[in-house]
Design a protein that fits this description.
17% of the residues lie in helices and 35% in strands. The chain is an alpha+beta fold. Strand 3 and strand 4 form a beta hairpin. It is globular, with a radius of gyration of 15 Å.
Length: 132
C-alpha cells in the first residue's frame, strides 16, 4: 500500500482526550503516533460506516502501573494505550475519517478506565497470556 496522509481520530487515554489528527499510513507513521512497536487492527462495524481501530498489539502486556486504558461503546474489553480510528475503502486501504464524524461523537462513548490488577490478569488469561 502506498503511503499517504489521512485524517484520523486519536484516542489518548494518557491525556483522556479524543482529537482529530493527520497521519501517514505507513507502519512507521502508525508506530510513531501510537507510540508502540506492533499494531493490531480491529474492524468496528457500527452502522452503515465501520471504523477500523488501530492499536498497540502488546498494550495489555505492558507495565500496568504506567499504562492507561479505555473502554469503547458496549465492549467489555479494556483497550490499552493509544488507538487510532480510521475508515477503509472496498479494497481494504486505510482512508480518512469523514468530516462529519466529530471527536465528541467518539468521546461520548469512551470510558477512561483503570482496571484492577485482578481484572487485568483475568483479561490476559482470557486471551491466552495468563498464568498457567
Amino acid at each position: 500500500m502506498k503511503n499517504k496522509t489521512i485524517q484520523a481520530i486519536l484516542i489518548d487515554p494518557f491525556s483522556e482526550k479524543v482529537t482529530r489528527v493527520e497521519t501517514g499510513t505507513s507502519l512507521e507513521d502508525l508506530y510513531k503516533i501510537l507510540q508502540c512497536d506492533t499494531i493490531t487492527i480491529l474492524g468496528m462495524g457500527f452502522g452503515a460506516r465501520g471504523f477500523d481501530m488501530i492499536m498497540d498489539d502488546e498494550g495489555l502486556l505492558k507495565d500496568s502501573e504506567n499504562q492507561r486504558y479505555f473502554k469503547y461503546k458496549l465492549f467489555s474489553q479494556p483497550y490499552a494505550g493509544r488507538a487510532l480510528l480510521t475508515f477503509s475503502n472496498k479494497e481494504g486501504d486505510m482512508t480518512s475519517v469523514e468530516d462529519d464524524v466529530m471527536c465528541w461523537h467518539i468521546e461520548k462513548d469512551i470510558i477512561w478506565y483503570k482496571p484492577a490488577k485482578v481484572e487485568l490478569e483475568a483479561t490476559l488469561a482470557g486471551i491466552g497470556f495468563g498464568k498457567n
